[in-house]
Design brief:
heterodimer; A: alpha+beta; Heat Shock Protein 90; 3 helices; globular; B: alpha/beta; Transcription Regulator spoIIAA; 5-stranded mixed β-sheet; 38% helix
């Protein structure tokens, strides 16, 4: 079986492209059987992750690379027939400044203040979230979202690559 | 370095009664939020008794949009201006709920209701 992602997108770190990514992801998730509100939430979580890369990782430089990869997940397989998918695994990679994964935290929601909500939203929407440093440079964010009613098991394989 | 990047967000403001209705049209995202923030600041500078942000024309909002409104709410409290949100679409309401801010703002159905609240 081909272990490569079923959808792979390279975009420049320009906010111009964010609405297109949101629409693409919403459409794909809809075809994979996610409920309409969940499609919007997945697109929101990815949008927040991309904004964080652009804003904090690349200091708003608009010409740096970001990779978005999507795998369908299912019974025993990392990449299954989309029609039988139990969920998706999304991996966002960049060449931005590396930070310690443990320091990437959502803020305390008891404090009513602007900013710092993006990471909280990602954790709230997705079933699993993992930040890690890439081997060469940059960061990797892996997120899994299962359709309600799908098995609760989380795929162990979280590594990804880009070209 | 990029600025805010191009946005399709347009913001219209209209005086009504003792207040001002601000109506953004388009996505309030990383590129749109600065446009909304600028208009909120301009209107708040005039110290109206009430500001209504009509979100009926906003199909999408991200955390930068929510942060912009939180900032405006804090400024409104300082200047004793009433700030209300109305016309919220389900997708936009969802982010307020995820951020647990739906109870922090006064959210009503329509601009008319907001003018009476």
């Amino acid at each position: 079986m081909n272990d490569g992602p079923q959808l792979r997108l390279r975009l420049a770190s320009n906010p111009l492209y964010l609405s297109g990514v949101r629409e693409l992801l919403s459409a794909v998730c809809r075809r994979l059987g996610f409920a309409e509100d969940v499609c919007g939430q997945i697109a929101l979580a990815v949008d927040e992750a991309l904004c964080n890369v652009i804003r904090h990782g690349y200091d708003r430089a608009a010409d740096r690379p970001i990779w978005l990869n999507l795998w369908t997940i299912g019974a025993g397989d990392e990449s299954v027939d989309p029609a039988a998918a139990e969920g998706i695994r999304l991996v966002i990679e960049d060449e931005a400044r590396q930070v310690e994964p443990g320091k990437i935290k959502g803020r305390n929601l008891e404090e009513i203040k602007p900013g710092g909500l993006g990471v909280h939203i990602i954790h709230e929407v997705m079933d699993t979230v993992q930040y890690e440093k890439r081997e060469q440079n940059g960061m990797r964010l892996t997120m899994v979202k299962r359709r309600p009613g799908a098995r609760a098991a989380v795929p162990a394989k979280l590594e990804a690559s880009h070209g | 370095m990029a600025d805010h990047g191009p946005t399709t967000l347009a913001v219209r403001s209209e005086g009504r009664g003792d207040g001002v209705i601000i109506s953004p049209q388009g996505d309030v995202d990383m590129t749109g939020s600065p446009v909304l923030r600028q208009e909120l600041k301009r209107v708040q500078g005039n110290r109206p008794a009430r500001i209504v942000v009509d979100l009926g024309g906003v199909p999408y909002m991200d955390s930068s949009g929510v942060a912009t409104l939180v900032e405006a709410l804090q400024a409104a409290k300082r200047s004793q201006t009433k700030l209300l949100l109305c016309g919220m679409q389900d997708k936009v309401r969802s982010i307020f709920e995820i951020a647990r801010l739906d109870a922090v703002f006064t959210i009503v159905a329509t601009a008319d209701a907001a003018m009476k609240a």
